[in-house]
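Weekly puzzle thread! Below is a chain. First person to post its structure in token form gets bragging rights.
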Amino acid sequence: MVVVAGILIGKVASAEEDVPNLKDPKIIAAGHDLFLAKQCAHCHGADGSGGIDLTQRELYPKDIFQSIADGREKKGIRMPAWRDVLTDEEIWQATAYVISISRQPK
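Winning reply:
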């Protein structure tokens, strides 16, 4: 079990080292397309403000990446892991889109 955890942590760490420019409009647009295509809007709403609201909080790239990659549970609602469905590049695209719609520090 420790080996598996080490492998997963290593994969997230290596993916974080390859962080693209999350403000690049092309990357954000690709993330928006994924958000719609992968049914993220089903739980988060078309603009990210439904169910588990993505727009009213400061969200940090590494946390978003990890939540998308590994899934998470909050308030009894389970978000599935997308690591086996999306590439790291696609997860970063989705991360860029979520950052673009979330409240950011001033």
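Puzzle host: Confirmed. Bonus trivia for everyone else. The domain at 2-101 is CATH 1.10.760.10 (Cytochrome Bc1 Complex; Chain D, domain 2).
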